[in-house]
Amino acid sequence: MRYPREWNEHERRIKEIFHNIYRTQIWVSIEKLEDIRTPEELEERRMVAKLNVMTMDMLEYDESYFGEDSNQRPAGYRPYFYSYLIYMDARSDFQTLIKLREMGDRWFIAEFRKPYSAGWDEYEGVIESSASPVIFRERSIYISDDTLDQAILDRINDVYPVAPVSGDHVIRGQLKTLLDGVHFTSTRIYNVGNGNLIRLSGDSFQMMFDVGYHQRSHPGGSRMKYGAAVRSFQKVIPNAVVLSH
């Protein structure tokens, strides 16, 4: 596989991992599941679930990367993600949505290749991946009834530990220190698809509040308005970014 000369080692490796994912075993878990209880709620095509997607290549790369001395890591690292957005409508098999609900927080074996054996459920949707920029590809996914071995789960939990949640009093203290003496004088609201991005300005201080979702992750609104918003705020270098989700 050939890459642009300016790509660094990290970019090349992530591209290889993303390319190979179509012909290898993948692992999926539920990140978000819409509360849909009846087939009538699927009269129009809509996103019903978002899956975390991982492969052995991803796990081994992150084990190596985060386990190395920081001085030995490739330059220009950009956090990457790989997700799958499942869409359904009135033609979809409602039973497969029920099976998604039964997955809970477990990891299951899946494929992007159509399996030749029985015991796999097919879902239609969109691959969402990024090491900057975000890329979307329509493709079916096939999920088996088999869960991951405990040994693999232990490795996943070691590499991606759940970060502790700070208490409200800690956040209030940090904000008080950050905004001490700052007086905001203007507010601008950008349409970013599902929700808004709010820019607060004042005293040479810029704060962005809630960067919203990408249009393809949560369809709705005007693509033209989304693009105009991105062009307007992409040159802003904020002093702070507040995420509400």
Key features of this structure:
245 residues; 8-stranded antiparallel β-sheet; 4-stranded mixed β-sheet
Rg is 21 Å
Strand order of the largest sheet: 5-8-4-1-2-3-6-7
With helices defined by DSSP (H or I, 4 residues minimum), what is the helix count? 6
Helix content class: 25-40%
Indicate the proportion of strand residues. Answer: 25-35%
Identify the overall geometry.
Answer: globular
Query: What structural class is derived from the secondary structure elements?
Result: alpha+beta
End-to-end CA span: 38 Å
Weakly predicted, low-confidence segments = 218-222
Report a brief summary of the structure.
The protein has 245 residues and is α+β, with helices and mostly antiparallel strands.
